[in-house]
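Morning!

As promised:
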Amino acid sequence: PRPILLTRHGESRDNVRGELGSFIKKKLANFVEKRLKSERTASIWTSTLQRTILTASPIVGFPKIQWRALDEINAGVCDGMTYEEIKRNMPDEYESRKKDKLRYRYPRGESYLDVIQRLEPVIIELERQRGPVVVISHQAVLRALYAYFADKPLKEIPYIEVPLHTIIEIQMGVAGVQEKRYKLMD
Ligand code: G3H
């Protein structure tokens, strides 16, 4: 059976040249090249954001595809603000999100439900693939993708832990879905 490997980008938005970033990138590339060595139909999917594209850059030998649908949840007017800043400057928004994180839509941005909806074509394409796929994306998006494959209820999605520097491998076989996790760093 063909695995789907989910992982968060290793580069950070603020420090794209960080040492940790390049360490993780190399680790990920080694892991992917080893894990998918004899797979001729494997592909690497990223979002359209630099931090996932750069994370994928040292991986060679597989086609790469960028999906806008894999971009991080759009925080609209809150993009770039810390949770503290949102709490201080937009307390009503902060409270509404806390009350219903699944449905809350950032002003001029998205909700988790919006993200789940835009992932539909990605999921259809993932299920159609004949070979393994490595998905390098972002926390909110990976929460939704993981929930789909691991069959988690909608209401849990905004709280699922998708740890950094970890590869979640999902195998869909006759006996259902199996999951393995690999850490890129101790
Ligand atoms: O920065 C965006 C995060 O990946 C999503 O986190 O939905 O828990 O705020 P949050």
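The mean pLDDT is 93.

Hope this helps with the figure draft.
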